[in-house]
Every structure is written in structure tokens, then in C-alpha cells.
Amino acid sequence: MADLKGKVVPVPIEEEIKESYLNYAMSVIVSRALPDVRDGLKPVQRRILYAMYEMGLRHDRPFKKSGRIVGDVLGKYHPHGDQSIYDALVRLAQEFSMRYPMVIGQGNFGSIDGDPPAAMRYTEAKLHKIAEEMLRDINKETVDFVPNYDESLKEPAVLPAAVPYLLINGASGIAVGMATNIPPHNLGEVSRAIAAVIDNPEIPPKDLLRYVKGPDFPTGGIIFGKKGIRSAYLTGKGGVVVRARLSLETLRSGREAIVVTEIPYAVNKSSLLERVASLVRDKKIEGISEIRDESDRNGLRIVFELKRGVIPKVVINRLFSMTPLQTTFHVNALALVGGKPQTLTLKEIIQHFISHRKEVVTRRAQYDLRKAEERAHILEGLKIALDNIDEVIAIIKKSRTVDSARNNLMRRFGLSERQAQAILDMRLQKLTSLETRKIIEELEATLKLIEELKELLGSERKILEVVKNETLELAKGYGDERRTEIVAEEAEDLDIEDLIQKEDMVVLVSRDGLIKRMPVSAYRRQGRGGKGLMGGKLSGDDVVSHLFVASTHDYILFLSNEGKAYYLKVHEIPEGSRVSQGKSIRSLVQLSPDEQVSAVVSVETFEEEREVFMITAKGLAKRLPVPALSNARTRGVIAIGLEKGDYLVDAFLTEGKGEVMIVTRRGHGLRCKEEEFRSMGRAARGVTAVKLEPGDEVCGAVPVEEGKDLLLVTSGGYGKRVGFSQFTAHGRGTKGQIVYKVSARTGELAAVLSVEAKDDVMIVTAQGNIIKLAVKDISVLGRQAAGVKVVNLEKPDYVVSVDRVAREK
Questions:
Q1: Distance in angstroms (rounded) separating the CA atoms of residues 190 and 581
Q2: Which of 116, 726, 765, 798 has the CB geometry, 3.0–4.6 Å to 769, for a possible disulfide?
């Protein structure tokens, strides 16, 4: 017997998992979650429409059970479960989900309240008339067909799609590591934009906004502002703010009521009402006495009855701010282009649609030409026979068999086999003068058609004109008025900051990347030498690496040791208690695995003309204009280029005209003019700021400010204040002067700060303790003094950060 034992090949589990997961991810991306840019459909939607077309479920035919449709799709094309197919079928029929529904449903297909549809055995469906335009000419070899999952049948790889489905109905789907979210649009607007691109392929993308005003949702609503629309159309990503449509009515009782008649797209009405009721119950929204849902078959109507004396605008603003009556539709125009996911602009989507339609029209014309030529060939044979009918009859009568008759005709008149066979198949009634005339007229018409088709195929411009005319014709037949109103002004009175009290916050960042904010009021001032309060419950050997104080309304710039900048609003940072650990900063900004926050800078606006002064551990520094970091956001941008082994240690805002004090760990300080550091681009490394001794590195840098002192705190808990006047300005690239006489007892310098006597400071230790001190309690000493004890430490604890508590202006 043959040896049946197989060979065992050891495979590392991480390699097997990686390969298997990548295969799964690609399957989800390409075969399930993302639409094809050409017909705008996901595979399950395409298969449903094609299966219904094959079943003959036209708009003017009887309905068939949804279960029958699902069974056909499941058995023939989509073996991924009946429920997923039925869910997709239901969505194609929902008028509140689809701007232009593709399926006509009969029975319970769900509601805007989130009610589930009836089981597929109870509902019926057939194709909508506009869906038939998606399948128009599919039998004319206009698209490629591929084998189905078991290779027993063929299915279309893409539909001919005379309708720009991807734009008019949008798409949403979550793949692996990516997602798509494309809003629906108005067919008329999209068709005019397609015509504009065909007429002028070089049309600037921004000019298309004259044709496509913005998304047009099936549920109506009001879009506020064009900034998000512009971003979405020009970059493929953007946030569109959508509000409910409401009005004020006076009821019979004399009270006023807020009446909602349209809600934002994809908002569940039932959940919306529950949310409002919960907020009213918790007294977070005051002034509403009763909530009623008066919706019926004529449309949506939600009534919020107000208490007497209540100002409606205040209640409306609270409703918009705290409930889904205002939402942001986050556009992410991701679709498959050539089988690969790609983020697309409005013009790119239109160009891909035109390219697809151009190919469909070309292939249709080639098919029609071939058929016309075949028919003309037959008609020419019949004409020859009719012109010589007596001789043809004589030849046929003399022939012994059909084959000999065919051969004799071919030989006598120079006919092809198909022409001769057509003559033999011709019925005697064709010999009447009327029927003869019809054959001649058909031949003339066919020859004219052939000429027209050849002319069409010979001109790309004419093919594009066909695409344009057919698209505009569809818009005329199926287009309707815009449902979603667009208001040019941005939404007012709804900035989340209006609901957030201005308050100074302590922002804590740990070495392991945990972040939180707490009110400054959570800490009471203590005397010099106190132990401090617990500032954060840290796990393992994690330590607090940075503390910063800023207003809840400020932007907070995070500058990492790798030289990248990120920003958040302070109120976006999760608030915690003194004993809470905080949230991972990586859930808020996209830091790399080894990246840590080195400096934090508070910025009121990115339009200000100030600059960020940055310095690295190896003593390189530069100035960078604040507007250069306006695109940092949570993904981050390069703020400073770094040499190998170097890292960013400090940064602060500056006007660029003063002086800066740079301090090293071993107690050297250099005072020099900021003008010696020229303003540079984001990727620049900077210039040498201070000459370092072997083993020394920069501790930090502060701007020199009149009337303030330099506060120095060591890792051992010692500190002092030194007047800036005790330091003379030197040129950059020098050692500077002694600022602190460090020793084994004091430890190296841990932090430097510019302070006033009336300031309070907060000192953070490695174990998370925080002490709040009055600066006036810290002695002013000479340059070479060792300082006084400012915080009692229990070893192995040490000081890691110091920051000034901000005062109200």
C-alpha cells in the first residue's frame, strides 16, 4: 500500500492568523461591504436586482413572495444566509432609507420608528421601474458575466446601471479597517453634473457644486452650512450638519408647541422620542410639558407642547444640542475602483460613472451592429431570391434533397450557407408584393442602422453624447424636487462649547499614555513641604509624565517626543476624578506605539500669528508658525524633524521677538534672543540652541518675561526661584551660566517654569501625587544655590512635572 502519511509543515501561529485574517478582510471589503463605483451596488444588492429581473418581476407584473426571491438569490448567487439577503431586499424597498427605492414592497417592510419588517413569508416584492433602468440592455453583452459561487451559473460582475446609483441612493457599510458612508442626492442635480463633466472634462471640481447643491435625504431635513458639503465633495470626507424641520404652532389651549415634520436621515423616531422624554424627566431640558407623536399615513408629526412663559428658542436650541434632532452626517466616499477601495471626490465618482456608461454604450452598439449586420446579410439573400424567384423555385424543384437545393442556390447566386438556408425557410406568403416590399424596406432600414452604429462607434464624442442624453432623459422621467433644504449659514447657537462652562482644567498625561482632565478647584492650596493629594491612581510602574492647565474652550496641542503635533479641544478630553486612571490618549489621538507626549501647548485659535518654540534633548531649537499646525487634528502632522536618538522635550507659544531661557538637567542655563532662531517649516530640524556637556541634556525652556522669576524644581523635591535679571544674554550655541547647583541630594533638574509671586503651581510626582503651592512660599535665591525643600517625597518617588495654575484674566 502507498504511504498515506502526510508531511507536517510547522507554521508560526502569528503568520497563519495574519494570512487568514487578511483573506477574511479582503473578502469583506471586496465581496460584501463596499459598493462598486460603476453601478454603486454591493454584491448582495446586485444579485437581488438581477435575480428579480431573471424572475420577470417587472414593475408592471404581479408581486412574488419575498421568500421566493430570497431563495432564488441564496441558491443561485449569494450563499451567505437568507437573513442578510432579506435585510438588503427590505432596505431597497424602504422609502425612508432609499432616496429612489429600487424595490416595490407589499406588506410590512419596517418603519422609521425602527419596527422590524414582517417575516419574508408574509411580504411580497417586485422591481421598481427605475430599477429596470439599472438592468437595461444587460442581455446585449454590455457587461461581463462571471461564474457564481459553485460555477454552475453566470452572474453579472456589474450592472449596466443607466442610473447613477452610488450618488442618488448613497451607500453605507463597515468593512475591516475601513467604512463607507455616502449620502443620497437628487437625481436631477446629479444628472446635470454628469452632463457638465461630459461637456467639459476639465471642469474644476468646485464648479460642480453649482449643479450638485448637497445631499438630498429621503427624510428631508435642513442642511446647515456649505463648508462640510464642500469638504466632502472636494476631498471625499466631510461632516454635513442636518437639522429636523420644525415650526411653532399655537394650540387651542393658548400654549405654544414645537412641531417637527421632518427628522434627520437615519434617525430612529421612536429612539428620538425616548431620548427627549429622558432629558425632560431628568430636567436637562426644561419647558416641555407634553410630548406627542401624531404621525400618520400623511406624514411625520411630533409635537412638543411647551409650558406657559417658556421661550421657545431656548428649548429649540437645547433640543438641537442634546438630541438627534440635529446630527452630523460624516461623509466618507469610499468605493471599489478596479476592485480596490479608494476615497473619491464628487468629480471622480462622476468620471467613473461616465467611463462605465461609455463602455456599456460602446458594447451595446457593437452588439446591435453585429446583429444588424447578421440581419442585413439574411435580408440581402432574401432580396436576391425575390428578384429571381422563378429561377429559385426551379432550382429547388429540380433538387433531390434539401442539402443539394442549398448548395445549388449557393453556387448559382453566390450566397452564403445562412442566406441559402433562409431562402429555403422562407414561407410562400413572403411572395406577395406587400411582404416583398416589407423585406426591401427592412433591408434599407437595417443598412441605415448599420451606418449609424458605425458612425457612433467611430466617434467617442458621439458615444458620450448618448451617455449624456440618456442620463438627462432618465432624470426627466424619474427626477423630482429636492427634499432637503440647504441653508448657507452655519448652524447657530449650537456649538457644544455654549453648553460647557468655561473652567480651568488640570490635564494629566502619564508615561504609559493615560490622559484625563480635572477642575483646578479639585485641589486646595497647601503649605511648602506638604505631601500633596493623590492626582491619579496609576497601575504598575506607570508615572505621571506631564501636567498642563487650560480652559475647557481652548485647543490643546500635544507635541510628541517623535516631533509630531496633535490637537483636541480641552473639553474633548475625558473628565476624571482625582483617583481615576484616565483614558488612553491613543483612543483620542493616533499616537504610534512608542510615541509619548513631550509638551502640551494651549491655543485659543489657529489663526493667531504667534509661533511655537520647540527644543529637543540634544539642544536643537526652532520656531514654527501656529497656522502651520491647523491640520494636525487627531491624526497628527510633523512639527519638527529629529536626528536619530534625539527627541522633543519642550515647547511653548511665543511672539518670536523676546528672549528664551534654556535650562539643562545638570543646572546650566542659556539666555538668548528668540530672533536667533528663525521661523522654519514643519519638517525642518532647527538649529543648535545650547552647547551641552557630555551626558547632559536639555530639561526645558521658558520665555523670559519681565517681572517674573525662573522657577527650578529638581527630581528630589528641591526648588527655588531666580530672577531673570541674574542672567546675561549670550549667543545661541554657547553653554550659558550656572542656574542651579545640583547634587546627589537634590537630584537633576526635573522642571523649569516662568512664574510670578502671586501664582500657584502644581507639582506632580512619579507616583501620581500632586501638590498645589503658592509661588511666594518658594524662596528667591542666587544662581548657584541648591534651593529649599518644596515637596516631601517618599523614595523611590520623584518629581516629574510642574505647571502654573492659570488665573482668570
A1: 51
A2: 765
- Which residues is 408 bridged to in the sheet? none
| Domain 500-804 = CATH 3.40.50.12780 | no
Give helix 402-413 / helix 417-425 axis angle, nearest 10°: 120
Regions in the chain scoring below 50 on pLDDT:
1, 492-496, 498-499, 527, 529-535, 537, 540-541, 807-809
Rounded Cα distance, 63 and 52, in Å: 11
Order of all β-strands in the sheet with 544-551: 544-551, 504-510, 514-519, 583-584
> Which is the catalytic residue, given 122, 367, 478, 555?
122
Pick among 1.50.10.10, 1.10.268.10, 3.90.245.10, 3.60.20.10: CATH of 356-478: 1.10.268.10
Q: Does domain 245-324 have CATH number 3.20.20.140?
A: no
- Per CATH, 27-161 and 245-324 having the same topology is answered no
Pair 386, 442: CB distance under 8 Å:
no
As its CATH architecture, domain 27-161 has Alpha-Beta Complex (3.90)
- Judge whether 122 counts as a catalytic residue: yes
* Strand extents, DSSP E, 511-658: 514-519, 533-534, 544-551, 555-560, 564-569, 583-584, 597-603, 611-616, 620-625, 637-638, 648-654
Q: Give CA separation, 354 vs 188, 387, 389, in Å.
A: 16, 47, 51
Q: How many CB atoms lie within 10 A of CB 254?
A: 7
Q: Which cell numbers hold the place of 253? A: 389651549
pLDDT value at residue 498: 46
Task: Write out pLDDT tens, residues 670-729.
Answer: 999 988 898 888 889 899 999 998 889 999 999 998 888 999 999 899 999 999 888 888
Q: Helix, strand or coil for residue 456?
A: helix
Closest CA to 729 of 655, 657, 660: 660
Summarize pLDDT for 70-127 with one digit per residue, the tens.
999 999 999 989 999 999 999 999 999 999 999 999 999 999 999 999 999 999 999 9
Strand 769-774 vs strand 533-534: parallel, antiparallel, or unpaired?
antiparallel
Q: Would you list the domain boundaries of the chain?
A: 27-161, 245-324, 356-478, 500-804
* Residue closest to 647 by CA, chosen among 508, 516, 545, 762: 545
Spatial contact of 670 and 662, defined as CB atoms under 8 Å apart: yes
Give the bridge partners for 327, in sequence order. Answer: 242
